[in-house]
């Protein structure tokens, strides 16, 4: 509900997918905010979080996005009330991490105070699939070139890039030789002091693949030192007094030392290269190699101890030893390459870090701290089985979360099964109890009788069949000797064509065209029906089947969908045009907010269409009048209101590229049973939609409400 607080997430088409860690980010920040050191989600933004009245998560058990689109018209209120839709990528068990479904995780009272710990240490294979390292690199061992940062990753992580405006005057190492898996590794680390200019290098260390120190040199900074940062750098005023070496001297020496296929290794190496004012094309950054979620990174000191069993950066030493740090980063990279991602993931570094932090808390008499501070370190960890569930952590911070439905919290805070309560009873209790809680999870159930494999396969085949019919048009009749190329060109101006075939069963030839996007098929029906194409006045229509009788109603509802508000579809673009070209072309349109240029998710090639999002609906209407008939760099444009610009665009692509043969066979065998079940299912969905409407309307203003379709698995 949008008043003071609101959620913004500008994701379209292929980007409309999030993982369970990203959803966890959103829930954590919404529930806790800055007062508990939670940070804004990386993929969306909550405006005025402190004004949030509460968070409500509605779980629709046994239902997936298949049900949402199969019963799109029945979900009348759900699709009108909720502005953002995302595919939730598969996870080990997100609901477990949310409220402990299937595992009674309860905070244990200890002499040190309340802590949230699970006894499980070694992750299961199912958990490993969700490990950020496995998601990034896969399980198989790879050579070192698989772990060097791409140019995009370097840009994203503030590495100095050749030709970049901010790197003027930087020295390029000229190590341009092709890297192989046998290219030499070199560890690099610098220590900096704060000067009038900013951070300047005062000590540099370079080690080779055997750990031999090739360079360990003090450097005199150009500007006056403001803060030596001796505690971390180990540098003192006395140490720098006799030093004559300057930054250009070090740059020259490093450049000479590195072979042309050298790979530099370091921990947050971007800061070292920035301080050295040097550019090197091939790097391995151990702070990114040992991947974590939410953009967080392990410290080098922790990794050295947990992975290598080495103590570095000891407190009794004066500052860090850059040679020691460079060697540690190098050995960490070598360990990762030799052992492979699966072995590294099995180390369960997140759990080791949590254990280490809890040990520190114990030593520092953590029982004297406020409960919220003690548990925050667990809340900052991503939701894996080896950690407490989200509701447990909320309780420890002093909040009283509400859990209603299939699982409920008993008086002692344990998650217990409760299968006897009906959806109607759950709704009544929710209407009474949700206003009293700042974080609520309400579970409705479709019923176990609706998850039989033949019913799901039958539903899937029906949805696929209907989508195919909606994407398909028949055009004709044409003359016997008509030019197929001309027909394809004319209909191609409406949008990307997936297939085009000539129908020869009729007295005169027709063509059957299947488009890749709904808008293209609708545009063809609207603009080419009755037009003259290839010398013939033709009729353009969709297939006539029982499932297509409500097609016009469905198209109208899609146009009015909140996801398509202020959004228009434009076709007839040249495939060679880039997003930059289109920004120039359409930049003059009033209130243009976002441009989305679809591409094939397999080939990565752009399509001849795009979507334009406007800040105001009236601006979108005005843009349609301007664009229709407009010629953009060689192509005559056609446009209309968007039908599937966001989540549905991606889902249609997935349906079109998945195998539907099995579903068809099951449907044929079980057709009668499916038809009866589907009628009952339609009624249940309609009832659930009414429940969501009632619950939503009872919420206070500024409540973040999320609906989950977790599916059967």
Automatic annotation (TrEMBL):
<protein>
    <submittedName>
        <fullName>REXO5 exonuclease</fullName>
    </submittedName>
</protein>
<dbReference type="Pfam" id="PF00076">
    <property type="entry name" value="RRM_1"/>
</dbReference>
<dbReference type="InterPro" id="IPR012337">
    <property type="entry name" value="RNaseH-like_sf"/>
</dbReference>
<dbReference type="GO" id="GO:0003723">
    <property type="term" value="F:RNA binding"/>
</dbReference>
<dbReference type="InterPro" id="IPR012677">
    <property type="entry name" value="Nucleotide-bd_a/b_plait_sf"/>
</dbReference>
<dbReference type="InterPro" id="IPR035979">
    <property type="entry name" value="RBD_domain_sf"/>
</dbReference>
<dbReference type="GO" id="GO:0004527">
    <property type="term" value="F:exonuclease activity"/>
</dbReference>
<keyword id="KW-0269">Exonuclease</keyword>
<dbReference type="InterPro" id="IPR000504">
    <property type="entry name" value="RRM_dom"/>
</dbReference>
<dbReference type="Pfam" id="PF00929">
    <property type="entry name" value="RNase_T"/>
</dbReference>
<dbReference type="InterPro" id="IPR036397">
    <property type="entry name" value="RNaseH_sf"/>
</dbReference>
<dbReference type="InterPro" id="IPR047021">
    <property type="entry name" value="REXO1/3/4-like"/>
</dbReference>
<dbReference type="GO" id="GO:0005634">
    <property type="term" value="C:nucleus"/>
</dbReference>
<dbReference type="InterPro" id="IPR034922">
    <property type="entry name" value="REX1-like_exo"/>
</dbReference>
<feature type="domain" description="RRM">
    <location>
        <begin position="471"/>
        <end position="545"/>
    </location>
</feature>
<feature type="domain" description="RRM">
    <location>
        <begin position="566"/>
        <end position="644"/>
    </location>
</feature>
<keyword id="KW-0540">Nuclease</keyword>
<dbReference type="InterPro" id="IPR013520">
    <property type="entry name" value="Ribonucl_H"/>
</dbReference>
<keyword id="KW-0378">Hydrolase</keyword>
<keyword id="KW-0694">RNA-binding</keyword>
